[in-house]
Target: Ubiquinone biosynthesis O-methyltransferase
Amino acid sequence: MTDTVNADPAELAKFSELAHRWWDLESEFRPLHEINPLRLDWIDGIAPIAGRKVLDVGCGGGILADSMARKGAEVLGVDLADKALKVAQLHALEAGTRGVKYRSVSAEALAAEQPATFDVVTCMEMLEHVPDPASVVKACADLAKPGGWVFFSTINRSLKAFMLAIVGAEYVLGMLPRGTHEYQKLIRPSELAAYCRAAGLDLRHTRGLEHNPVTRRYWLSSDTSVNYMFATQKPAGSL
Model:
């Protein structure tokens, strides 16, 4: 790990310790499994991924990457948590998932290596875990082909998000390990929109993700006060 890599060693260690539990549906990663169909359908409804070249930045154990490959996409998942990547690779092998590969590389390094390569780029639940989220947004934009789509999801820095996503989910309900999210690292939609504009991405769609902790039901809505997603597009004439 060098000072030039846009990653927090403590964050990487945190997720590495849990790597063996990525595909345990009753583990700390259960919420990611439960929201994955919603995320996948939303992405596929805006930018159909079958037959497309797709990049998943911050793929972790491969929950989204694996499901996109099963939709018929050619997927590359990248992350800097090597243990999580090994779990993702093992799951793909055991499940017989075709069309997905994994690499340990930063978004910025991959953008320098393969600019304007991917039809669709996803970066979900990752921006709030890096020191410089604007740098990741810029790298994702650079990796997309002209006219390509870039999707982000993260958590709003709001009082409601603090109470529900941190106090509620981590300390009261135990849905996530304590310390998974740090309030000061959360990102307001206005801030993410500014990062996207600076990277040359046009914001096309925004959706909120809501949750009922009693019924464990998740649904998409227009409420972006806690969890939210952006669908952005790289202008067709851009390089």
User: Anything to note?
Assistant: The chain has a mean pLDDT of 88.
